[in-house]
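Cross-check.
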Amino acid sequence: MKVLSLAALALAAQQALAAPPDLQAVVRYETVSQGADGVEKTIRYSERWVRQNGHAWRERLNAGAPHRHDDDGHQHLDFAAAPRHVWRDAKGELKVEFVHAAKKERIVVEPREWRDAGFDGSWERASQLVDMAKMRGFARKAGGADAVVYSKAGKTLRWSERWQMPLQVSLRSADGRQRETITVEPQPLPAGFVPPWRRSAGWPARDYLDTLD
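Predicted model, tokenized:
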């Protein structure tokens, strides 16, 4: 029994060491694409990220309220822009919900609908933006201070060892006609910080499939 307890403590310690640090961050996205007609288009948007105690929150900044559809009169949530909350429950299973602030309700998404709602099922990408296990085969070099730079065929990642979060991701297509840059500005959580998912925790829950009516 003692051996099992020691093993459990060792596992818990390893998990604690592996857990990424709490943080808040502004993540800025920019995509520049050039069409065959020579017209260049730029798309920019920003998100607020919060990571704390096994929870990950992402929400689009400056997004408007859900629009009203003329055909049915209902407000339909834009899941790409809506606040998304991902966490692990007591069993270690991933849970996903979106927040409909205008209606003060939580949209619960079951695993079978994750991809339909825009979630790929990766806790690593939900909490750290990239899955570092996918960096195998990339060239690696020091990037100054606590940063490490990974690069491979038009892809460059500047990774913060301190924050366990990218500082910048750069992607370029083989023909050079499309470029994407993601910039991350991580910061520590302030004293007394109240996570955004706690404010909506008491709101009624609605199943994702019900929002498709």
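The longest strand covers residues 40-52. The radius of gyration is 20 Å. Passed to J.P. for a second look.
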